[in-house]
């Protein structure tokens, strides 16, 4: 088995993607979640981490005068764990360019749309309002452009006539719980990397929409 890939996960809420990552760990998975950090002390994901024996930290953004100060404090804690990879798993903060550059190539996010479509918030409503025939989620490398970094992996499904916002939300959540652990494992195994040209899987440059899984 490969040497462990140290991972730090950043959360703000329930931590369902964190739980999917925890559940994916096993003897043949080189991923090691070293710590979970939240900007909200009440985030249920902290309880999930604690139940799995993973160290937790709270860095509340309201305690800092600006984004730069908050990100600096966050970075100090993250770097104590010497992470190979930092994961945004429902972390509801816009990160400063300096923070993003510090973790360039080792910072991943999961976004609830088929990027580059529907960057930002309220993606399920926007997909329905746009009359999209398909929807899904994307794992992408984080860059200074919001939701604009190279896509590594997408899960896509057909939107049915009966689909509501709630239905799309549930389907996307289920898809996220499949593809985020998979992308993390690929990174941990040395298969997934960010190059100057974009995201690469097994040494091959991925298309703009990344590797596609239809569910």
UniProtKB/TrEMBL annotation:
Family: Belongs to the GART family.
Binding, N(1)-(5-phospho-beta-D-ribosyl)glycinamide: 15-17
Protein known as: Phosphoribosylglycinamide formyltransferase
Record function comment: Catalyzes the transfer of a formyl group from 10-formyltetrahydrofolate to 5-phospho-ribosyl-glycinamide (GAR), producing 5-phospho-ribosyl-N-formylglycinamide (FGAR) and tetrahydrofolate.
Claim: Transferase is one of the keywords in the record: yes
Binding-site list for (6R)-10-formyltetrahydrofolate: 67, 92-95, 109
Record's keyword terms, sorted: Purine biosynthesis, Transferase
Formyl transferase N-terminal domain residues: 6-184
Pathway recorded for this protein: Purine metabolism; IMP biosynthesis via de novo pathway; N(2)-formyl-N(1)-(5-phospho-D-ribosyl)glycinamide from N(1)-(5-phospho-D-ribosyl)glycinamide (10-formyl THF route): step 1/1
Catalytic reaction(s) noted: N(1)-(5-phospho-beta-D-ribosyl)glycinamide + (6R)-10-formyltetrahydrofolate = N(2)-formyl-N(1)-(5-phospho-beta-D-ribosyl)glycinamide + (6S)-5,6,7,8-tetrahydrofolate + H(+)
EC code(s) of this entry: 2.1.2.2
One GO BP annotation of this record: 'de novo' IMP biosynthetic process
EC class of the enzyme, as a word: transferase
A GO term from the CC aspect: cytosol
Site (described: Raises pKa of active site His): 147
